[in-house]
Specification:
about 375 residues, alpha/beta, two-stranded antiparallel ribbon, globular, binds pyridoxal-5'-phosphate
Length: about 375
């Protein structure tokens, strides 16, 4: 970074840029919303159907099913895969709460394994030791926008005849070394909540799969067990509204450009923060990291976070209290940590997320870098 000398003395840097993004494509978004309003088809209408086709095409997969959240996408996937009370599902301890919550909602036992200290994603070398006769599946999470090692996860799953559901709530548009999302799993579950890389103005989610059986079951489950008007079996109400589908259809056209912009800011942060005491995010060679979050780590996290807020920078933490460290865990639900999760606990204790969204300005990124460097000189070492 060459311009730190010109950074302003004080600047307010927001963590999110929702309105900035809206203003950058306002005409397209407004038209899409108005078209749905005029259509009078607001639920399970043609806009949803069109968006599902576009999303399936984008992933290069046969079926995409719009749902009302990423959490629902996960537990509906588990139900479609036939999860039974007490079945064990292996996942990472280093994830947003909803990954484990979805296992519990579906009646499963959440089995937490540790994360890889380099990527903070599930550590495949820790998975086999957690497999028992009750294990039915694995849920890798592509945390912060970097894919988990799906080749290793899928090889273990094949060996032990387990299903794999990818939680890609944070990683749309990312890929791994020689694999695309969905290629090495039974289904992908994604979230469209506002702050995600592909986010609507509210809640939303989707399940994407090549498996006909999963697609049909989830379509039925999301709509009161119904694929045909007035004909029902047991199900729920978890549909993506057409208004959100219309918004997402517009935004999907911009996603790769927005991911590239996130990558540009990440590169600038990494160059600017090289040589500080912070542990910086890494991109494994061959992978495309889409930087849903740019997370640095320091043992003096509270000090860095306070310093940045005093300087007008809205840093956040993802996630400062690990799932198993939340009060009341596991709330009477089935859960186990067979071999400890020290890396996940370290990440929870040390993580600080710097502002990261495509519509950041160079001035804001450089100001943030300058302030982190200033903190590091005073307190980092
Ligand atoms: C990793 C992960 N899994 C699942 C979810 C749940 O998605 P939603 O908020 O749409 O239910 C989120 C985000 O919120 C997430 O970050």
């Amino acid at each position: 970074m060459s311009t730190t000398a010109q950074v302003p003395a004080k600047l307010k840097v927001p963590f999110y840029g929702h309105a900035r993004q809206y203003h950058s494509i306002k005409r397209e978004i407004d038209e899409a919303i108005l078209a749905v309003l005029e259509s009078e088809a607001y639920v399970m209408g043609p806009t949803l159907e069109r968006f599902e086709k576009e999303l399936g095409h984008y992933f290069g997969m046969k079926h995409a099913i719009g749902l009302n959240s990423g959490t629902d996408a996960l537990w509906l996937a588990f139900m479609a895969l036939g999860i039974k009370e007490g079945d064990e599902v292996i996942t990472t301890a280093n994830t947003f709460f909803a990954t484990a919550e979805a296992i519990w909602i579906a009646g499963g036992k959440a089995v937490f394994v540790d994360s890889d200290p380099k990527t903070n994603n599930i550590d495949p070398s820790k998975i086999e030791a957690a497999i028992t006769s009750k294990t039915v599946g694995i849920v890798p999470v592509h945390l912060y926008g970097h894919c988990a090692d799906m080749k290793a996860v899928s090889a273990i799953a094949k060996k032990h005849k387990l299903w794999v559901v990818e939680d890609n709530a944070q990683s749309i548009d990312a890929y791994g070394d020689g694999f695309k999302q969905g290629e090495l799993s039974d289904a992908i579950c994604t979230s469209f909540i506002i702050q995600k890389n592909l986010g609507t103005f509210g809640d939303g989610g989707a399940l994407v799969t090549n498996r006909e059986d999963i697609a049909t079951t989830v379509k039925r489950l999301r709509n009161h067990g119904s694929l045909k008007r007035s004909v029902h079996s047991f199900g729920f109400n978890s549909r993506l509204d057409d208004i959100h589908a219309g918004i997402l259809s517009v935004k999907l056209k911009h996603i790769t450009k927005w991911s590239d912009q996130r990558r540009k800011w990440a590169k600038r942060y990494t160059e600017g923060l090289k040589g500080t005491s912070l542990k910086l995010p890494i991109e494994v060679p061959g992978y495309r990291h889409v930087y849903h979050l740019y997370v640095v780590e320091t043992a003096k996290r509270a000090s860095l976070d306070e310093f940045l807020h005093n300087e007008g920078i809205d840093s956040k933490m993802h996630y400062p209290i690990a799932i198993h460290q939340q009060e009341g865990y596991p709330w009477g639900k089935l859960a186990s940590i067979p071999h400890g999760v020290p890396q996940a606990e370290r990440n929870a204790a040390q993580c600080v997320s710097l502002p990261m969204f495509p519509e950041l300005t160079e001035e804001e990124v450089d100001y943030t870098i300058a302030k982190v460097v200033e903190w590091d000189k005073k307190h980092g070492k």
